[in-house]
TrEMBL record:
Residues 130-185 form the Elongation factor P C-terminal domain. It is found in: Cytoplasm. This is Elongation factor P. It comes from Rasiella rasia. The gene is efp. One of its GO terms (molecular function) is translation elongation factor activity.
Length: 188
């Protein structure tokens, strides 16, 4: 049993007869009244995101999880297939269990949270950033850089990302997986 002081990003808890993963939280101590914790919870079974507020000191039932490294193999409809890098066992997960599946390319190594009670996979955590190749983008207009302008670009996984005007097709870029935003161009 944990309390609100143990709340952190990525913690899995039992709530409303389901298992939720905390994706955002904020401790609030108003000038008047008791402190509380405002959270955003994502269901690991349905992918639905809800907002909830816990009063300070509230007891929460956390889920014991293990983390394992898995390699993303391929996508088949709404299912994503992964292989454990240690014992080569394979699992398949629904698209809802993934936070940003459009940023994952084949061969990417990810961290899978597994419930220790029933060995069921709960969620997939991508690395903090991934390197992807730009496959399609419009050429930038010269002289339009004073406003920090961006343009849409399609990367090798099919995701749309806004990039600076100097990015061209064939460039490799680093993308923040949490926000899905461009970070920098990778020089080779």
């Amino acid at each position: 049993m944990a309390s609100t002081s143990d709340i952190r990003k990525g913690l899995c808890i039992h709530y409303n007869h389901d298992i939720y993963k905390i994706i955002e939280f904020l401790h609030v101590k108003p000038g008047k009244g008791p402190a509380f914790v405002r959270t955003k919870l994502k269901s690991v079974t349905t992918g639905k995101v809800i907002d909830n507020t816990f009063s300070a000191g509230h007891k929460i039932e956390d889920v014991r999880v293990e983390t394992h490294k898995f390699q993303f193999l391929y996508q088949e409809g709404d299912f994503y297939h992964f292989m454990n890098t240690e014992d080569y066992t394979q699992i398949r997960l629904m698209k809802d269990a993934l936070d940003t599946p459009e940023l994952m390319k084949e061969g990417e190594v990810v961290t899978v949270l597994i419930n220790t009670e029933d060995n069921a996979p709960l969620s997939v955590d991508l690395p903090a950033h991934v390197i992807l190749e730009v496959t399609a983008t419009e050429p930038g207009v010269k002289g339009n850089t004073a406003t920090n302008a961006t343009k849409p670009a399609t990367v090798e996984t099919g995701a749309q990302i806004n990039v600076p005007l100097f990015i061209n097709e064939g460039d490799k870029i680093r993308v923040d997986t949490e926000k899905g935003q461009y970070q920098e161009r990778i020089k080779e």
